[in-house]
Design goal:
Elements (H helix, E strand, L loop, with lengths): L2 H20 L5 H17 L10 H16 L3 H4 L1 H15 L16
């Protein structure tokens, strides 16, 4: 699987997971597990360059890192965090602008 295809697929998936957690139709631990699984899948690609190829990928890695740092439960308890993540989702959907303070780098093995 090429990197761009992986990122595009994961953007669709993480967007759906986040929306479901916010709507309380999915338990937050499912999103946490998705993050862990995605990071494990990423290591299988053996990517050696930490520079994202485009803005969508940078935002994706920003969301991944923020979700890892704060945990999915923060989506229901921290309104500022939820707003930040929603801004990223809007950018993915083409309905918003590039998020302020977005720093997303590919993790390296």
């Amino acid at each position: 699987m090429i990197i761009e295809q992986f990122i595009n697929e994961k953007i669709l998936q993480i967007s759906a997971y986040i929306k479901a957690v916010i709507e309380k139709s999915l338990h937050y631990t499912e999103l946490d597990q998705f993050i862990v699984d995605t990071m494990e899948e990423w290591t299988l690609l053996q990517v050696m360059d930490d520079t994202p190829s485009n803005a969508k990928e940078r935002v994706f890695w920003h969301v991944m890192h923020e979700m890892s740092l704060h945990g999915s439960l923060a989506l229901s308890s921290d309104l500022y965090f939820r707003s930040e993540i929603n801004t990223c989702l809007d950018f993915f959907n083409g309905t918003g602008s590039y998020p302020i303070d977005c720093i997303g780098w590919r993790p390296l093995p």
